[in-house]
Amino acid sequence: MRKTEVPVALRDATVEDARAIAQVHVRSWRWAYRGQIPDGFLDRLSLAEREATWRARLVSAGAGRRCLVAEEPGGEVVGFAAFGTPEGGSARDGTPPGTAEILALYLEERAAGTGVGRRLLGSATERLRDDGWTRASLWVLESNERARRFYERAGWTWDGTTSEHRFDCANRPILRYVTEL
């Protein structure tokens, strides 16, 4: 069942958004990944650590790495998308030249299914295309069926590449999805 569209404005994130992005990041991991990665890992996520990480990323952001936030009329950030190239300037894990990456896309639980994620993903891929990228990739937990359906409905496909992501003492399979821009 589709929820009602949430009226949000998409805008470029600023350093002042670091705490709001960190809050969405921590809360979204806790609701979206519960039962998929160790509960202890999720329970120990630190808002202060995430805020420091996002502050540093936003300070060093440039044409190669960008972040959008979805902001409600009252000013609350309910989602974000980070995109561009990872540290080092090129997409990870052997993707062909000309490939950028959706580095993160997270929402508050109440915003899931309202069109906010679709708008963030669409705007991020449009900006990558405008920047001259011809292809984009992203990684998703194999067990995250909701996210996989979301990306597939948006035209992304699993390219057959798998890897693992380590959460505490547990490795979890991740899949690479790609799309042509």
CATH homologous superfamily annotation: Gcn5-related N-acetyltransferase (GNAT)
Strand content: 25-35%
Second rung of CATH, namely the architecture: 3-Layer(aba) Sandwich
Count of individual beta strands: 7
Compact summary:
The protein has helices spanning 18-32, 39-43, 47-60, 116-130, 145-153; strands spanning 9-12, 65-71, 77-84, 99-107, 135-141, 157-167, 170-180. With 181 residues, it is α+β, with helices and mostly antiparallel strands.
List keywords for this structure.
Aminopeptidase, 181 residues, alpha+beta, 5 helices
Would you mind describing this structure in some detail?
The chain has 181 residues and is of the alpha+beta class. It has one domain: 3-Layer(aba) Sandwich (Aminopeptidase). 32% of the residues lie in helices and 31% in strands. The chain has helices at residues 18-32, 39-43, 47-60, 116-130, 145-153; strands at residues 9-12, 65-71, 77-84, 99-107, 135-141, 157-167, 170-180. It has a seven-stranded mixed beta sheet with strand order 1-2-3-4-5-7-6, sandwiched between helices. Strand 4, helix 4 (116-130) and strand 5 form a beta-alpha-beta unit. Helix 1 packs across helix 3. It is globular and about 40 Å long. The mean pLDDT is 91.
